[in-house]
Write a structure and sequence with these properties.
single chain; about 220 residues; mainly beta; elongated
């Protein structure tokens, strides 16, 4: 009888510790738009998406630390004199580290604001478009289509993007129990391509030093 009572007490204590654990986990997915920005590097937007899993550590009832491993698809589109219908797709694995402030709005409802840096590594993506050329002995113009890997050296027939990216991410969210609906923007601070201007000697590409910008609407679920 005493042994059974001790087992029951241990089970209750374990449950209490778990209930008070400051660590929780979540899954999140989002869709939005992205583009390239910077002097002489602006582009039109294209569809962007992301998905990831993360963890949150509650410092107290208001403040928390969050981090995640995310798969992100971003890029941009443009139409230039030298390259027409250009589309650049970048696939990244990225890790944001954010500080979040939570404000209770009522029973089971919370609003939160989060901000912090992120670092990303390019893992894939394609860049495509067409290059105008002139048919010899004819008055007609044509376009030569191309498609290449986004990341890698241009001398190896790649688009020349560096794999490392990083910047700042800012987000807001509304939490209802375990469901989280939010919006966020990430601003890249790294010049993701410095090679095209070295191999394409035109005025358009002379100062081509693009950075990434993306915004998402997200839906997440917290696991206890």
């Amino acid at each position: 009888m005493k042994k059974a009572l001790m087992i029951m007490c241990m089970a209750v204590a374990t449950s209490a510790v778990r209930a008070q654990s400051p660590i929780s986990f979540y899954a999140e997915a989002g869709i939005g738009t992205s583009r390239l920005y910077g002097k002489h590097s602006g582009s039109d937007t294209q569809i962007a998406c992301k998905a990831g899993i993360g963890a949150e550590y509650a410092l107290n009832k208001t403040w928390a630390l969050r981090s995640a491993l995310e798969f992100v698809s971003i890029g941009g589109r443009d139409d230039m004199d030298y390259v027409r219908n250009a589309g650049m797709n970048e696939l990244y694995l990225q890790i944001p580290v954010r500080v979040a402030a939570r404000l209770p709005l009522g029973k089971d409802y919370h609003a939160s604001l989060n901000v912090g840096p992120y670092i990303a590594c390019g893992v894939g993506g394609k860049t495509s478009g067409s290059i105008p050329y002139y048919y010899s002995g004819s008055s007609a113009d044509g376009n030569r289509r191309f498609k290449m890997d986004t990341f890698g050296c241009v001398l190896e027939n790649n688009a020349g993007n560096r794999r490392l990216d990083g910047g700042i991410v800012v987000g807001i969210a509304l939490e209802y129990r375990r469901l989280v609906i939010g919006a966020e923007a990430q601003v890249g601070l790294v010049k993701v391509n410095q090679q095209l201007r070295q191999v394409i000697d035109t005025e358009e590409f002379h100062d081509y030093l693009p950075r990434n910008f993306a915004s998402f609407f997200t839906v997440g679920y917290k696991f206890r």
